[in-house]
Amino acid sequence: MSPPASADCVCITGPTASGKTDLALALAERFPLEIVSMDSAMVYRGLDIGTAKPKPDVRAAVPHHLVDIIEPTESYSAGRFAQEATRAIAEIRARGRLPLLVGGTLLYLRALRDGLSVLPRADVAIRAELDRDAAAHGWQELHDRLRRVDPDAAARIAPADRQRIQRALEVHALTGQSISSLQQAGRLARHSGVLVLALVPENRADLAARIEQRFDAMVARGFVAEVERLRARGDLHPDLPSMRAVGYRQLWSHLDGRYGWEEARGKAIVATRQYAKRQLTWLRGDPNCEVWPALAGGLVERCLERLSKENLIAKNARGLC
Fold first, then answer.
1. Nearest CA among 173, 176, 159 for reference residue 127
2. CA 134 to CA 286: how far, in whole Å?
């Protein structure tokens, strides 16, 4: 593990249901901080229950950034996150507070900390053509096509990852070059001063149980009704990035009549567990994060000690902890 030489912000990350938000809000009670959401679904207005978005009273007490910033008809990118998070970090520091990134979208963390390649903008016509090809021949066929033009990208992109397959083929169509070669050629500016603290459960079975309990709690709070309202808008469809979010995709299919309730519930829980597994794999392979046991006792005090060691509390909280 190689922490940044000079940290100016902190990131609390980890898989779904690992206690990231609870820890962040506990820290907010101890010293002045502002939260920068690092969640690819919380950016969308109207996606509240299924994203575990902090309630308005919490956001009024502790400032949150990059939450509710676009409509679910729009797309949001890792590159845009990196730019907007960098700006938020500078503004928070200028107010004498600690910027605290919180969330589990690890592509966003990579974009911010390590930089992203400079790639062409999306092309609506090419994407529509790829969607037609996928509808006619299946995404496996498009993944095979990707393997022929960019074997490196095909090796790291799963055959079921429609969004990334489409993007890689789109870049090749626009430039005549593979996305892998362009990613190596040049990168956007990086924000290297991120101290990353990853909450990783010691017991995978406990995490699986928490994910199931969390989903059922969302349903009890009105998750199904939330998806019904989104469907009733008339301007959304299940292929939008917002509606492909875990949980929303399965409930949309249930409301379409494709699944009964128990099947939809089971699929949503399994999809969430699979997402958490991918997050854990990513974190364990990242040498630039500190892995801490999730949900362990004394995490707040441990954080305070760690931030004090980095002089982050002294610079941002002036000893108020």
1. 173
2. 33
Say what the pTM is.
0.80
Question: Which of 4, 7, 11 is closest to 292 using CA atoms?
Answer: 11
Helix spans in 221-311 (H):
223-232, 248-255, 261-284, 299-309
Please give the domain boundaries of the chain with CATH numbers for all domains. Answer: 9-116+188-316 (3.40.50.300), 124-185 (1.10.20.140)
> Long-range contacts for 204-211 (Cβ within 8 Å, ≥24 apart)?
206/295, 207/15, 207/17, 207/18, 207/273, 207/276, 207/294, 208/273, 210/17, 211/16, 211/17, 211/269, 211/272, 211/273, 211/276
At 260-308, the pLDDT tens digits run: 999 999 999 999 999 999 999 999 889 999 999 998 899 999 999 999 9
What is the sign, positive or negative, of the torsion defined by CA atoms of 180, 70, 316, 284?
Answer: negative
